[in-house]
Every structure is written in structure tokens, then in C-alpha cells.
Amino acid sequence: MATTTATITLSSADLLSDNMSLSATMNLYKNGTTATGLEQLNYHRALIPTGTNFDLIPESAALSEDASYVYICLKNTDVTDYVKISINSEEIGRLYAGDWLFMPWDCDLTHATADSSIEIEAFTHDATIEYMLFHSGETLLTAGD
Amino acid sequence: MATTTATITISSADIADNAISVSNTATLYTAGTDTGISETTGLGRKKVATASNVVLLDGGLTSGIAADVTADKSAKVYIKNHNDRGDGTKYVNILLAAVEIGRLYGGDWMFIPWCAADGKDIEFTPSDATETTLEYTCFYE
Questions:
Q1: Which of A30, A112, B16, B24 minimizes the number of CB atoms within 10 Å of its CB?
Q2: What is the average pLDDT across A67-89?
Q3: Could you tell me which chain A residue has the CA closest to the CA of B136?
Q4: For B8, which of A8, A12, A14 is closest by C-beta distance?
Q5: Which ipTM did the prediction report?
Q6: Residue B58 within a domain
């Protein structure tokens, strides 16, 4: 098993009248375990053209009802650039230049009208993103040739 | 304007042949600008003892803690499941409206953008009716 940690620090010296600093660290464990770390990782960098909503991370039976974690960072530097992140046709929100997200992901394969792939669409300019998926298994496709 | 930053570090010494460490800091700006976000719900803590669906942040309402969040901008939400991990089977399902995003097990956290449009509530459903404690905050314009 692997040991992977994710730490967040939120801080501001002037949003409130006193300093704000919040930090949390988590271990990325498998579903239903007390301390067994996820062992599989996909780490990508991609250019997302504007004008189309793409499946960034496709749904998969192997990812259903399980503990997976997703990190996405928009590497663009123009502050007007953004990407919409959606799941099951619901927009979660927008990542602007330099923004990142980290969230759990559980494919809901029971949804009848849409799939639970994580979708992305770029606006203003093409988007350069980096993303990671920590997971416990992929549905591998049998070679067709 | 305020300067608020969110930093993430993901690291592992043994998930791959070489150690990985990914770190990024986002400064929280209003949509399409380099002006810092200046509003927050503050840090909240919510305890429930139910296995039913619970609304954490209500999108599009004219009252409530998220009433001033402007939809389709650059709001960000932090949520942490404050419970112990226990035996690893207790979690909360985090949902956007009726769509499941994923599971936060005890000790897990998440940080996501939020469209905050009408009806796009952030909700959670505990896996059982024992006490569940979440911490959360929203930064918005």
C-alpha cells in the first residue's frame, strides 16, 4: 500500500479583522479501510480547446461505490480565462486562472439520464490544465486488434 | 481588497517509483479579475444525527448563510468531515442538488468552486444516523 497525503492551507491576513489560517491534512485511503492507502494514480496535463464540453475523467464501473479523489488545476495566467467543471450535467463551479480543486469522486452509475464523468469546458481561451485521479481500480478495455 | 490564498500539497513517497509532491497556491479572486474576494460565510460547524439528506449551503435563496453568494462567479467551498475515520465505513455523500459528487470519510476534506445558482444546493447524506460533524466555509463575491 502507498501513503499519500493531501494538505490544504487557507489563509488571509485581511479578509477578517484577525488573521485567518486553517489547515487540514488527510490520508488517501481505500473505501472501507482504516489505513490502507490508495495505490493507483493518473496524472495528466492537457490542453482543453474552447467551445466543447469534454469528458475529462470518464465514469467507470471500477470507480463506482468507491473512494477516489480528484485534483484539477487551471494553469492559464489570463485572469479572464476559466473552465466549468460539471458532473452528471450539473455544473459544480468555475475554476479561474490559477485556481484548483480537490474533491472526492464516486461514479454514480445508476443515473439514468446522464453519466457521472467529470466534465470540463474552457471559456475565453484554450485551457491548460493539470489533473490527478487517485483511485483503487480502472476498467481496462480489452484490446480489439 | 483582501488577499486570501488556498494552498494544496499532495505528496507521496511510495505511490510511484519516485516520490511525488505537487503543490499549488491559488489566490481567491472575483470572477475574471485580480481583485481579491472580500466575503465569506465564516467557518461553520454542523452536527447532525441522521441518515437523511441535509442542505449545507442553499444556492439561490434570498435568506440564509449563502444568500449573498452571487451565482456563476468564483465562489469556493471548503468542507471537512470532522469525524474520526473509525472502521472506514462511515462517510458522508456530498451532493450538488441531487447529483452525488463523492464521499468524505472521517478526516477527509474537499475544496471546490461552487456555481451557487438557484437550486444548486450543496447537500450531504451521512451513511448512517450516528453523529456526524462537518466543518465548512464559503468564500464568495
A1: A112
A2: 96
A3: A22
A4: A8
A5: 0.96
A6: yes
Question: Would B118 be classed as within a structural domain?
Answer: yes
Q: How many Å apart are CA B141 and CA B134, to the nearest integer?
A: 23
Q: How far apart are CA A139 and CA A144, in angstroms?
A: 15
Dihedral sign of CA atoms B82, B46, B98, A118 in order: negative
Instruction: Give the model's confidence band at B119: pLDDT under 50 very low, under 70 low, under 90 confident, else very high.
Output: confident
Q: What is the CATH number of the domain that holds B70?
A: 2.60.120.10
Which residues in chain B are closer than 8 Å to A71, comparing Cβ atoms?
Answer: 8, 10, 22
pLDDT tens figures, B38-75: 999 999 999 999 999 999 998 877 767 787 888 889 99
DSSP lists the bridge partners of residue B27 as B5
Alpha carbons within 13 angstroms on the beta-carbon side of residue B81 total 27
User: Residue A82, by phi and psi: left (phi above 0), alpha (psi -120 to 50) or beta?
Assistant: beta
* Residue A115 in domain: yes
Chains A, B: CB pairs < 8 Å: 198
Q: Domains in chain A: how many in total? A: 1
B62-116 pLDDT per residue, tens: 767 787 888 889 999 999 999 999 888 899 999 998 889 999 999 999 999 999 9
Residue of A nearest to B95 (CA): A92
The number of distinct structural domains making up chain B is 1
- Is residue A71 one of the residues assigned to a domain? yes
